[in-house]
Design goal:
Elements (H helix, E strand, L loop, with lengths): L1 E5 L4 H12 L3 E5 L9 H11 L3 E4 L6 H6 L1 H22 L2 E7 L22 H16 L3 E6 L2 E2 L6 H10 L4 E4 L3 E2 L2 E2 H14 L3 E4 L7 E2 H11 L7 E4 L32 H14 L1
Parallel strand pairs: 1-2, 1-3, 3-4, 4-5, 5-10, 6-9, 7-12
Antiparallel strand pairs: 8-11
Helix pairs in contact: 1-7, 2-4, 4-5, 6-8, 8-9
């Protein structure tokens, strides 16, 4: 399969490039330096040259607070650019997969969010990502939207991705105890993204690791255990105690109604994935 990957320098993008290459795909990997997805003409030229059969968009502006302070830029990168990619994918006859977020929900529901739940984003980031979903679906009938969240993996810069390393260093950690989500290991997400691109089944999928979800605090504790660190200090804090520009959903746990119905195997439990991650981090 000839697969074009945007955002190839990010945590998920790198994992997808590695996985697709291992599957024998012809991979066209683009970071912003080689493709600015906000520039329609540049996108058009790349598609004309590389003629992909599948496109996976891993590019995004994921700085939630930055998006809140600059919603115009959030819309440009997370919505308008996604529409450009979807439109060019349609013209190229390629399937199009784009990553969305659990932040399209307001977090007030108890339990898991599924595709039956109506999105109600409260942050500029969530609003822009939902716009990206809808614009892509209008631009190409072969769009696959993948909602995910709480992504961790090698090379990530968020709390989940750095907690193992920080625990090993013996840092004092603070973790939110009253916000809940479903962790997602980047290599597992990457494998499902590639699978969805190959299957070419349009729709909206929720892709997360298995299990009942967790809080940041419990994730941090499990990460310390996975790293073999028992005496790390982890301070419990409430979400409301942190003064941040953007609102976050208190509960953003996801579950998919479609994946198993069409024959996709569930992703491993997040605790198992965390142990794999800790092992890789320890070898790094």
């Amino acid at each position: 399969m000839k697969i074009l990957i945007t955002g190839a320098g990010g945590m998920v993008g790198r994992a997808l490039v590695a996985h697709a290459s291992a599957q024998g795909d012809e991979v066209f990997a683009h970071e912003r330096a080689t493709l600015d997805i906000t520039q329609a003409q540049a996108v058009r030229e790349v598609f004309a040259r590389e003629r992909p059969e599948a496109v996976v968009n891993c590019a995004a502006w994921t700085d939630v607070d930055g998006c809140e302070l600059n919603p115009e830029r959030a819309l440009l990168i997370n919505a308008e650019a996604v529409e450009i990619l979807a439109a060019e994918s349609r013209l190229a006859g390629a399937s199009f997969v784009t990553i969305s977020t659990d932040y399209v929900f307001d977090g007030r529901k108890e339990g898991f969010y599924t595709q039956r739940d109506d999105p109600a984003p409260e942050s500029a980031y969530g609003i822009a990502k939902l716009q990206g979903e809808r614009r892509a679906q209008r631009a190409s009938a072969r769009t696959v939207v993948v909602r995910t969240g709480w992504i961790f993996g090698v090379g990530g810069r968020n709390f989940l991705a750095t907690v193992v390393e920080r625990a090993r260093r013996g840092e004092h950690l603070k973790a939110i105890s009253d916000a809940y989500g479903t962790p997602t290991y980047a290599p597992h997400l990457a494998a499902r993204l590639r699978e969805l691109a190959a299957r070419d089944l349009p729709g909206t999928f929720h892709v997360v690791n298995g299990g009942e979800g967790t809080s940041f605090l419990e994730f941090a504790r499990e990460a310390a255990r996975a790293a073999g660190v028992e005496d790390v200090e982890i301070e419990s804090v409430s979400m409301d105690s942190l003064s941040r520009p953007a609102p976050r959903p208190r509960n953003s746990r996801l579950r998919c109604l479609l994946s198993e119905a069409i024959g996709f195997a569930p992703l491993p439990d997040w605790r198992e994935a965390l142990r794999d991650f800790a092992k890789v981090e320890g070898e790094g």
